[in-house]
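seq/struct pair 1
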Amino acid sequence: MLRRLYDWTLSLAARKSAEYWLAFIAFIESSIFLVPADVLYLPMALARPDRAYRYAMVATTASVLGGIAGWLLGYFAYEAVARPVLEFYGKLEAFEALRASSGIGFVILMLVTSGLAHLPPIKVVTILSGVIGVNIWLFIVAAIVARGARFLFLAWLLRTWGEPIRHFIEKRLGLIAAAAAAALIALYLLVSYLH
């Protein structure tokens, strides 16, 4: 099922309405959808490098708005809506473990690492932010920074190196971003332990 969903999302890049689909996918990725917006963003930006930054801004804006929707789901409708969504994706147990052990500072850090490296999935962090009551304005600023940094960095890579960088992005960028996210988490845990 996930492979078909991935292929369908990738196929949207060839449509005239691709920019609208990018906004839609980026929005729902931040609250309920499994496939990251990068799957659609990369082929669109490669096909139209002159629009790479425009697409990055569309994806960032829609992703932040989707994150706000995830926050609202967690804050106002966790039991009725968010919990069944997490159960459907098999993420409820991991979510409850995060909920029990996370403070606001750690959730903001996870929002940044999720925005940069999908670690953990962004939808889990946006819903968790609402459930534990992270300040909405702090949440929005962190989401703008994290998601904006990701999409604008991809735009810069694609504008600078074009098609050859695509394979690097698809194969290794996730690992590099995950390593950076792990380093941020380790640094946070070290600072927390020293205090």
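seq/struct pair 2
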Amino acid sequence: MNKLNHVAFIMDGNGRWGLKKKKGRNFGHLKGVETVKKIVKSSIELKIPIVTFYVFSSENWKRPRKEINFLFKLINIYFNQEIKNISSQGIKINIMGEIKALSLNLRTLLKKTMHLTRNNKQIIVNLAINYGSKNEIFQAIKKTTKKKLNIKNLEKNFFFKTLPNPDILIRTGGHQRLSNFMLWQLAYTELFFLKKLWPDFKKNDFVRILKKYKKIKRNFGDI
């Protein structure tokens, strides 16, 4: 039976879900946050040590300004309202990405959240915000060339340097692509693509994937 340490999520389909419900893309993003909370709760129940969510990619800046502002407002509201509840559940929050591009207020809030939850041990929740894997690799190479360039030294300069690589990647929304997410770390990850939009993703869907994962023979290049 395969050991499970880390599950990553590409939460695709929020905007399309909102439009499908005739309530707009932002409504879909609002519902998407509720799904994140449910999946974190399910992950704790299922004793999964680490989960990572692709919240905002470096390419998402191409979206309409109103939608971008709403997304960051959601993040701001969520952590302002839930920070005590997050900590009381033993959740450790990590932020992965180029947060220097975010507003000062949001950067301060995210850093405060990481600081307050740094010693929590129930589960690690990584949020990839303004994250792009190509840039992560490029910046890591630039830093590593000052030392001896090898894989071990390179990986020390990644955002996810202290974490095991994901065992599973789950992408909702129907598209079968990685969208510049953890390209290095997903080299031997088991990939699961669902047609369901993210707000429709349920614990039962999650459990079904975990059962399939446990039956997979993972070779890592061996036979």
